Amino acid sequence: MDAESLLLSLELVSGSGQGLSPDRRASLLTSLTLVKRDYRFDRVLFWGRILGLVSDYYIAQGLSEDQLAPRKTLYSLNCMEWSLLPPATEEMVAQTSVVKGRFMGDPSHEYEHTELQKMNEGEEEVVVQIKEETRLVSVIDQIDKAVAVIPRGALFKTPFGPIHVNRTFEGLSLSEAKQLSSYFHFREPVQLKNKTLLEKADLDPSLDFMDSLEHDIPKGSWSIQMEKGNALVVLRSLLWPGLTFFHAPRSKNCGYIYVGTGEKNIDLPFML
Amino acid sequence: MEDLTSPKQEKANQDPGEAGRPWEEITAASSQSPESGLSEPLELEHGLETGPQLRRSPPQSPQSRASTPLDDLTGPGTSSPPSLPQEGSYTPSSPALTRQDLAVPWQSGKTSSVNPEAGTPHFHHLEQSSDKGELTASQTCQSEGTTFQQSLQTKHHLYGPEDVTYNNSKQKELRFNIFEEEDSNSNYDLGHTEPGVSEVAPSMLEIAIQSAKAYLLKTSSKSGLNLYDHLSDVLTKVLDERPENAVDIIESISQDVKMAHFRKKLDTLQNENEMLPTYEIAEKQRALFLQGNLEGADQELEDEIAENALPNVMESAFYFEQAGVGLGTDETYRIFLALKQLTDTHPIQRCRFWGKILGVEMNYIVAEVEFREGEDEEDVEEEEVTEERDDADSEADENDEDELPRTFYKTPQAIPKEENRTGANKYVYFVCNEPGRPWVKLPSVTPAQIVTARKIKKFFTGRLDTPIISYPPFPGNESNYLRAQIARISAGTHVSPLGFYQFGEEEGEEEEEVEGRRDSFEENPDFEGIQVIELVESLSNWVHHVQHILSQGRCNWFNPIQKSEEEEEEEDEEKEEEKGEETDYIEQEVGPPLLTPISEDLEIQNIPPWTTRLSSNLIPQYAIAVLRSNLWPGAYAFSNGKKFENFYIGWGHKYSPDNYTPPALPPVYQEYPSGAEITEMDDPTVEEEQAFKAAQEAAVLSAEENEETEDDEEEEDDYDQE
Questions:
Q1: Model ipTM value
Q2: CA nearest B634: which of B175, B279, B325, B283?
Q3: CB atoms B282 and A229 under 8 Å
Q4: How many cross-chain Cβ pairs, A to B, lie less than 8 Å apart?
Q5: Hey, which end of chain B has fewer CB within 10 Å, N or C?
Q6: Its domain of life (chain B) (predicted)?
């Protein structure tokens, strides 16, 4: 969610139950403006909170002018002092996929994992140490790639390439807001090329340049609900429980936040 | 002339208004010196732009000159058909003449500060400006116009676009035509001049212009709009609102203008369906707010205050907010009112806001309720405890010979559910989807449901009658599953500070019987509170105050053997013996006693079961202790030393670091004793058959030989026997 409209967004997301306490809110309002200035971001998003056993991580992301360019991620333990995280690489993701369980809450904590590695002499057990920071980076990256959501029309693509915020975006209409196809993954498109020509003919290249949520596997991994009558549409991901996306139809308010343990719900197919 | 401009000021194109004015001037001029106009064009041969530039010069001296080109313009103009009076004026000849002539005098006569250049460069400037498009042309015209008197401005406008049209691009002609046309349409009377001037036949250009304009005015068959009006509306909007980088968003603006046409007409039709649920829920919630007004009597008010079953939800919500948990203030207030409605309509002793369980389609708001003594509502839906007594009893009547093999399968005795107000059914739970909607009572939970609920993991949909399709099959629908999960969560996560509750006076001790276990507690009136710091540091300061649910599915152990011993009289002796054997195996299940400190809770693979936190590190003196369960993510408890509260907000599932695996199917059960009677025999193989046959033949032969030796005389019989 945008740091500019933090309070309103938190109020709208409160249906999921987990939010921020007043002192965290106040600290965020102050520190995020400073972060924006120091790092010269175009927009700062408060990404969410990962619950650890000892303490929680508060995550923020900064965007540059091009909305789909790789974002810089920062974390903090007290909402005041922010540290930059390194960008995620595939190696990191592969390495941390073996780590299971909750986050500790201590960034320097190291998980130990024994691997069998073939050395010259034969197989040996090697104990690999994985830092929690690396795990944090890869989890945030996975969550972003999997379930970060943006409504259709909020961003548009210029012929020069960069993606801009659409200033004339007035919000989705109510009928559009109830359909999953009006929401896109906020990431580089992966499945767009696989569409048939017939489907592509109906797309508007300046608006439909990202994958929609409709074809997510498994089907039904999104819970779409209207709250307050029809005044607010809330999407919750069942694959990464804790991710909540909200949008007030016919208005510009939209955003998402993740408050959870940072673990994927692999049992999803059994639970549907 | 002022009259014309003032209403026109609104329009982006001031040309119409301005064009109107020159007409007046033209008419005036034409009346003045219709004849001098003929000679003067010769002088005005220089630049076409001189026309407008002429306008800029001080009114008097160029006025006469200006009038002449106007005359020239009017001349041909008047000859053209009345509907397009001005177009006729745009014949190439006269402006061409004027162009040359006016250029020089224009330069000298110029007072304008805007374009102090040579006529030709100015002409080019106008060309270029017009090339940029309508907007810029009108903008330059406008900006220039602001520096001039309105009269001059209008004249300039007339000629500015006029210049444009005389360049080769047809577009410019069209634009000019558009500007002029609007004016002419609106100010037809003003623009109409006496056709007293010489006429010039309409040229190819005019025809082209007219046809282009006619095309633009063509009404769309679909929407009833025409491009001409639409473009003028769009430009009007852009010039009114002046957005930045308008060219980038021009398409959206065009779309908005189109949508604006429809807004007023179909507003009620389109939006009604969509807004209906909003209004519905608002109505229902309004009813919540108004319920208090129905009972206005003071006595009742006092009664209410005295017997307050309602908890102070707002106070708890405030504390939970310090922990970062909560539903938002106004939502919580509505829930508060809904709870009040619940307590008003049902005879409730005590009520508590248990929490919120999220579902896929809708969510559940759960209230934990204790009914008043003796006012238990009967369970409408009696759980059908299916005891499938096997057919052994009925078959005993059959003949032994025709008897089907008896199975040894004996349906496991269904464990009866606990009575109301005890164990897992201590409290009654009500749920609703949203505050304002009616509260629905959940049925009591049975041990079978709890046992099965432990083995499955399903999302709630939000509708209570959804069937739960799972393996092992869940005995019930979503309302039962919900109730079972609520029971498990309560048993696992409801904690209170040590000493808040204490056991009641014991009435006789029953050592062996489990039913005598302490399951009642009451508030400790002497509780003095525990320091918040201590609550955070040590988990032994918190205790469970809800009974642990045994693996049997009940809180109080039920021995299935005891009861069935009474029924064994009907059973065969065999089975009695078997049961006798079983009695030895079933051990009494024991769980941690009530009011056990939570430090005794088991860890989950090295993860502590609870996380404690101070709500705020910055102001510790007023902070509260917050407990977060790691076993049931979403379960919270807070305490400020004296007060405490439990809350749940989540999906309703237990945490497990490993994947969920559905239980494997049991092996095929051996129902019948295998024996010669029942077991199918394999067909004999060929070798066996041959061997058997050989053996039989050998036996027959030997029998025959025996017979032959014995009965030699009866050979004939032997033959018969064969």
A1: 0.90
A2: B325
A3: yes
A4: 113
A5: C
A6: Eukaryota
